[in-house]
Amino acid sequence: MVRFGVLGTLEAESGGAALDIGHARQRYVLAALLADPNRPVPPDQLVTRVWGGNPPHRATATLRSYLSRLRAAGCAIDRTAHGYVLRADPASVDLHRFREKVARARTAADDVTAAELFDEALALWRGEPFAGLDSPWLTGVREGLEAERHAARLDRHDVSLRLGRHADLLATLPQLAAAHPFDERLAGQLILAYYRSGRQADALAHFEGVRRRLVEYLGADPGPGLRDLHRRILAGDPGLEPPPPARPEVRTGSLMELAAIRAVATLLIVAREGDFEAAARRVRSTADALEKEIGELAAEIGGPLVVLDDGGVRLTELGERLRTGARAGVAELAAIFAETRVSGRRIGGRLRVGYVASLGGDLVNRLTAEFERRHPACRVSLTPIRIGARWNEHDLLEEGDLDLVLHWAPGGDTRSFDLPNLRTGPPLLSRPRGLLMPEDHPLASRASVTLEDIADYRLLDPSKSLNPVARDQWAPPRTPSGRPIPRTEDDVPHLIGRTRIGPEDMLSLVARGIGLHITVLSLLERYPFPGLKVVPVTDIPPMIAVPVWRASEENEAIREYVAVTTELTAENAGIFR
């Protein structure tokens, strides 16, 4: 059975092996069919989904060619009277599994089950849906899917609050609320989590911030739900207190067995010390407590286990038999503990790694494969990302969805990442810079250019929201002699209508003559684009790729991933090109 993934990069695999689903435009065809699996998509509608309003001259023939290649790769695509149909088991598509688990969570009989189902559903997301593909139709699909994900998150928050897990929510809710500043339901969840965590001042301050934003931008006050929550907090309403923690169900027999095991351990200590007082000092208890514990064990067994002898303690025959048998169990338990402790210190769990798409999936896959070979208990999910317009902690790490990213740093250093709570590792590779321009541009015939040459033309402004260091390193504002280098009046996010920027965006803007772009010299090797050329820029530092993560969430898996990738790129500098 072929399994498909759309909640991240578009993926298809069968029997654990990835299918070759072709280049970007062919992937658009598969994406267009996967949006409606097992339902016919008319050819003209398929052409519109793939090419928008500007299809090529022979769009239908090209479409048939792509469909034929997808069939050859293993995708079950049929032609019917009503259009093309991708045959797929709903359980084989991660989007369907997400929706199925969310539906089950919303009708679950209890909150614990609901929380588990929501967690399983949200864990299926590897990043932005259909990452790396972009078209007007896909943008609409992507926005709809992100809305479904956000709704599931909000439902999961409500479940967590009902379960008394408000403290856990504070690890992610503030960042999510910052990304959705007008979402009153989300604001209410954060305010309640603050209040239940003993942070009433933060709860009231957040309400006031939301109220000001709504008045300033929308000319409206918060809705009745948020106003009522604010009133109840001010009144100290007992109904806002967290629910009591759930008590695990424990069988009486289990309690008796645990007490007996503890008493046997006490017996072994008393027998070794030969004295209740000495044994009590070792376990930080009292002689009376130990004597009572052993007496209860003796009553359970049905005979005395110890006798007093000249002020000391010795075991009876029954006590010796119990000690002899217990020693084997204690030795086995010690061995299990030692093995468990070692396993606990191994790197396991899940590591979510993002990488800027222009770094290349082949490089990142090779680095990750070596990490997983050394640490097979750790599952790594890889997500190609676009460069964000804000360039802050939450933007770079996909607002908490990623543990670490492999990201370009312009300027030959990591100063652009000198931000609160961010940490960077050693450079993994370095790439010379080049100027991207149309082939008929006046500088295209040059073997190389300098910033002085570029000052006569206009660079694309990467983003007015970037921190000043990052913005100036991507598109220098001045030449070494002090001449200003003009930038486009509108920045790239404004020009493309999105806050995340991919290589294809820069290629399209340069091809349209809107501005030039300083990029990596090898850009067109990875993203061929007819009519464009990259000429080396000789007086600008190289672009370096570095790992970036949150200092507050650093763990052994992140440290080891950085160590392995740094070691591998250093050893294979000539291979990773």
From TrEMBL:
This is BTAD domain-containing putative transcriptional regulator. Keywords: DNA-binding, Transcription, Transcription regulation. Pfam families: BTAD, HTH_1, LysR_substrate. Residues 16-86 form the OmpR/PhoB-type domain. Residues 468-491 are annotated as: Disordered. Belongs to the LysR transcriptional regulatory family. Belongs to the AfsR/DnrI/RedD regulatory family. Residues 93-234 form the Bacterial transcriptional activator domain.
